[in-house]
Every structure is written in structure tokens, then in C-alpha cells.
Amino acid sequence: MQTRVLDHDDMARMVHLVGRDGLMQRMISALGEALRALGAGLLQDSPPRSGFQRGGALRGVIETMPHREPGGGVTIKTVSYSPDNVARHRLPTIMGTIARVEDKTGRLLALADAGLLTALRTGAASAIATRLLAHPDAHVVGIVGAGAQAVTQLHGITQVLDVREVLVHDINLGTAADFARRVAFLNLDVKMAEPREVLARAEVICTATSVKPGEGPVLPDGVHQPHLHVNSVGADETGKTELPVPLLRRALVCVDHREQALKEGECQQLSEHEVGPSLAELCAHPSRALKHRGRLTVFDSTGFAFEDHVAFDVLMGLADELGVGTKLALEGQPEDLLDPYSIAAFRRTSGDGPRSADASSSV
Fold it and tell me: Which residues cross the membrane (predicted)?
């Protein structure tokens, strides 16, 4: 039995061969179609993620996100959110791996890094929500929180709107100033701005911050464009929120996963009856979104395993197309299926002498 492994170099090769736009466009298309089917009741939803919230000096969460396609496969993503990683360890804030298990046998089909996948699918989800709920003539985008996720948030939006100006804010001035370099491939006019200016002028805003639980909001309430649409993607643990409650209560609030959003998204600040339709429902019935394009709308994006399952399908399809990835025998298969010690790699002939002390030590 062999498992296809996609490592860092494989992901880099896909970006190089397909291009940023090609990857994002494929992700938006695949996720849009899948959400439409989910909203129509043709596909199965995911359970909420679960895991461990770290306190004290070890901020963040480590979680597992499972999704099952009956008869097809099970996707399981292990993901960590560690907001101190960049400064303390020179590692990304979000790290993870993703696995695909065959539904009928349980064997491991594929294993991959989930960093790029998570960024792409989150940006694609915001693009789909923006296409449905933002005014089609919106041109000014605001970014609050200019870290890694902000890159794919803006990139996704450029695939569905004619973006002409970008206002960016981050509490770290260096990160905000560097954002223009990281999105230079989009050829946009990027300016630094304070949150109140972002709120007042932007027609679409993305919040993607590492604000601590209980220390939000990161966007003030106040005067804004009447047709403002907000993609809030930073709320991903209990107590962590980015938007002010009065703004949420004036808006149509669309969620990706209702149960998750009420527990750890912006919707933890609302009662259940104040939460609007899911993104899947709007994808299946886009006419329900059209009537809200002229008013304040919010997409509460907590990220759910269904998106990861679809995104992994996209990347595995590209791997097949490009011949990318390595096949490894990760899972053991004993010759005698009833004897776990009969793994072929450890069988010895009768002529073999005893192992040395070093060779027989545990590994």
C-alpha cells in the first residue's frame, strides 16, 4: 500500500506551474460548486472542529477538523494557531497537515502540508461571500490585520471584484508597510490607514488578526459605506472576536458553519436568532443574497472541514495533472494479517546472525 505525500517542494512546484491566479480560480470554482451542492442538501456537512485551547504563555489552539464523504474518503486536518510563532520561532502563525483516508478500507491515501491549502480555501470562501453579498461595483478594499492570511484574502477578492484601492492597517507598522510588497503581484494601489478610515472608506473589509481573546474589536463602530461587506476570518477560538456588537446587529450575518460560529466566531456575541443564512444556503439560492447587496453584510468565517476536503481534492487533482508528489509505503501490512509481527520489512532468514546491540535497540 502506498500513500501519496505532497511536501513543501511539491506545493512550491504547483504554485510555479499553475500560478497564483490559477490556483485561486480553481479553488473558488471548486468550493463554490461544492457549497452550492451542500446548500441544496446533496452533500454531507462536517462536524465542528475540536481540540485544545492553550492558555498562559502558550497562546492559541491545536485542533482536528474531520470531514467524511460517504463511500469516498475522510479528510482530517490537524491545524495549529500559534500567534507568537513569527516573532519567537520564525514559523508561520498557522501550521498544519492534512490526510485523506479511504472510506471503505481506512487506508491512508494522501498526506500533505496544510499551510497553503488553509490560506487558499479561506481566501476562496471570502471571495465567494464577497461575490454574493458585496456591491458589484465596489472598488475599495480594507484590510485589518496584514499577516499571511491577508494576502490570500485580498487575492481572492480581486478575482470577483474590480479592486482599485486597498487600505491596510496592522498594529505592527512594519507588517502593514510590508503588505504592499507581498501583494505586488496584484498591481494594486495599497495605502496604510487607521481603522476608522478603513471603516469609513472601504466597501469591502477583511479582518484577519491575532487579537487576544477578550481584547476585540479591532474595527471600530461608526460611519461606513451603506453597502459595506465585511469578511471576518480571525475569530477562531472562544472569546476571540474582531467586530463590534452594534455593527453585527445592524448587519445580515452569514456564517460558514453555524455551530462553530456560535461557539468561537463573531456570532458568539449574538443570540442564535440573530444569525442569518449559511454561505452554502446562499450559494444554493443566490437570489436570497441579491436583496442584501445594498446594505451592511458580514461573513463570519471560522473555516470548516468541508472546505478543507474540497481544497484537498483540488490539490490532489493538480498533483495528478502535474505528476507531483512522492509515493511512500507509510502503512505497514503484515504478511499474516492476523500477526502484526509478520511485517515483511522485519522478516529475517534462518541464516542471519543475531543483531548487534545497536541494531536491536528500540526506535
Answer: none
